[in-house]
Write a structure and sequence with these properties.
With 461 residues, the protein is an alpha/beta fold. Helices cover 29% and strands 25% of the residues. It has twelve helices and 23 strands.
Length: 461
């Protein structure tokens, strides 16, 4: 039983198409499309690029965002005025602008006056508005809150519904000097039907070169934008396969992201991978469990490594199916309202284990934590991140949105995971190479030390 709402209990996930391999330290802007943490999840997306972050663009963007914040806040509170001296405050100079209360209000008006008087360039107020909004939310100092521009909002909605319009490839710029490497192809997707294979290099989009160092070459984000489009339209890619270059035209389509997959391993262990807790995650996971049991599964191994989280109601529905009567999830929202989601008496009485790592976030962490507290499953892997706030997206008049933290949550026993995460029952580290291979779904099960430990625990006499 659940308190159904649309709050998100996961890391930042507006657009999974621009990602990095999992870092070894916490990120301040997880999953934001070049930054962050959730770059490591493995949902099949239209084009997921993996990039390296440079420092100077971030610093420049921060400076611009700060200036833009001041500019837009002025418009929000007082409108444009350039009749007074830029040297003093609006009160001193005779400005008719409305001054927000506090020192920050006086400062932004001073800067606005200076910009009006002295700045000689053209101002794109739409860009300033986006940069300002992003800067304002960033200024909250909350790594889980972020701004979504109107252009990005459609992509954000695609992510949380586990579907998108695209061609069905995952690409990486890692260790590639020219072009983008295809590291995964969604089965039965347009890319799959067009013959794209893992290891192919995308050299150009519609004749425009990708990352080849030439003057007109497009970057990762522009590549993503050009591959996107409306369902039923075509995009032509120049692709290298084992050195043989060809042009391939692919028709874009709506693709359902596979967020849950499973297979029956030896000794009756059903391996169930849950990539996120977005839309339909619980339904798909329960269907996988029931199918596995019909085929003779005697135990369950859940894999939520690189899982960025998702919706609470998806998490609660799956926990309700697995666990006996009792509390499943506790939360307190911005108004101080407490909420406890409860399970009914029906449960699944089977041996279970859960694989976690540092990049198991939020709903993924609390999935493992609930099973651990009920002693229903053993946890294997590495310490998780430790997220304890939930967010909700609120749209603005121009079609953009802010996704901000509006509450906190704890485990069934009332334990906060903030800053500490979950301690596995069996801590098993992976090497950096193993982590990369796991992220790209190329780590063989016999080489996965965490998975092998979980199998040993589940199958021991």
């Amino acid at each position: 039983m659940e308190n159904n709402n649309e709050y998100q209990y996961g890391a930042r996930e507006p657009d999974r198409d621009s990602r990095q391999p999992a870092p070894q330290q916490p990120q301040t802007q997880p999953g934001w499309y070049v930054p962050g943490p959730q770059s490591w999840t493995q949902p099949q997306t239209q084009v997921r690029t993996v990039v390296k972050t440079r420092v100077w663009p971030i610093l420049l963007a921060a400076m611009l965002a700060s200036l833009a914040t001041i500019w837009v806040c002025y418009f929000a509170f007082g409108g444009r005025s350039s009749q007074s001296s830029p040297a003093g405050t609006p009160e001193q100079s005779g400005s008719t602008a409305v001054v927000p209360k506090g020192n920050w209000g006086r400062k932004l008006n001073q800067i606005k006056e200076m910009v009006d008087t002295y700045f000689i360039g053209e101002v794109d107020e739409d860009k300033l508005a986006d940069a300002a909004a992003a800067g304002m939310i960033e200024g909250l100092g909350d790594e889980w809150s972020y701004y979504i521009s109107a252009d990005e909002y459609a992509s954000y909605l695609e992510n949380v519904t586990n579907s998108y319009v695209g061609i069905g490839v995952t690409i990486s710029a890692e260790n590639v000097e020219k072009g983008l490497e295809v590291v995964d192809v969604t089965p039965d997707s347009p890319a799959y039907q067009a013959g794209l294979e893992i290891g192919d290099l995308i050299l150009a989009v519609e004749g425009t070169p990708v990352l080849d160092g030439s003057e007109n070459a497009i970057d990762l984000n522009e590549t993503k934008n050009r591959v996107r489009g409306e369902a039923g339209t075509d995009v032509t890619l120049t692709v290298s396969h084992n050195g043989a270059v060809r042009d391939v035209t692919i028709t874009r389509a709506t693709i359902k992201t596979v967020n849950v997959s499973w297979e029956l391993l030896e000794n009756g262990v059903a391996y169930i991978r849950i990539r996120n807790f977005e839309q339909d995650a619980a339904k798909d996971a329960i269907a996988a469990i029931e199918a596995a049991r019909e085929q003779g599964a005697s135990s369950l191994l859940f894999d939520v490594r690189y899982n960025p989280g998702g919706y609470k109601h998806e998490l609660v529905r799956l926990l309700d199916y697995l666990l006996p009567e009792g509390p499943l999830f506790r939360s307190v929202d911005y108004s101080g309202k407490e909420s406890v989601d409860e399970s009914d008496a029906a449960c699944l009485d089977m041996p279970m284990a859960v694989l976690v790592n540092y990049d198991s976030y939020s709903a993924a962490e609390f999935f493992a934590a609930a099973l651990q507290e009920y002693e229903a499953a053993v946890i294997v892997g590495e310490q998780t991140y430790g997220k304890g706030r939930f967010q909700t997206a609120m749209t603005l008049d121009d079609g953009s949105a802010i996704n901000i933290s509006i509450g906190q949550y704890t485990t069934p026993k009332g334990v906060s995971l903030v800053g500490k995460g979950i301690t596995p029952d069996y801590e098993v580290p992976l090497t950096d190479e193993q982590k990369r291979d796991l992220y790209y779904s190329r780590l063989e099960k016999q080489d996965d030390d965490q998975l092998q430990k979980a199998l040993a625990v589940l199958t021991q006499p």
